[in-house]
Amino acid sequence: MSDIKKVLVAEDSSVIINLTRNVLMFENFHITSVKNGKQVLAKLEKEDFDLILMDINMPQMDGIECTKAIRALPDKSKANVPIVAITGNYKNYTLDDFKQAGLNDYVQKPLDYDHLLATVKKHISK
Q1: Is the distance from CB of 89 to CB of 57 less than 8 angstroms?
Q2: What is the pTM for the complete model shown?
Q3: b/e 31-49 (16+ beta carbons within 10 angstroms → b)
């Protein structure tokens, strides 16, 4: 049996969720999507994921705040899940800003789906 990797997509744009889902499902990733950081934390309580794609600007709890909450979880396997930021505001942040928040990497909006897929594979295949 193949080991299907699970990706949690945290994004408030349905268009980006659907496009990301289509790209990653074509590569046999199992995709779960949520619309904000609070939903990410609720999903993580119930399930394990191999990677999280985290929009930075979301309602209720943004991606930076959510990432910090994940990194503080007592369950180390959940706390150490790779998290890749998805952001249209990359000019407002440096890679160091993302790393200090606990993010492993980032991809810019508008999304380049080849780059997105390569970034996901880079962090999942470790």
Answers
A1: yes
A2: 0.94
A3: bbbbbbbbbbbebbeeeeb
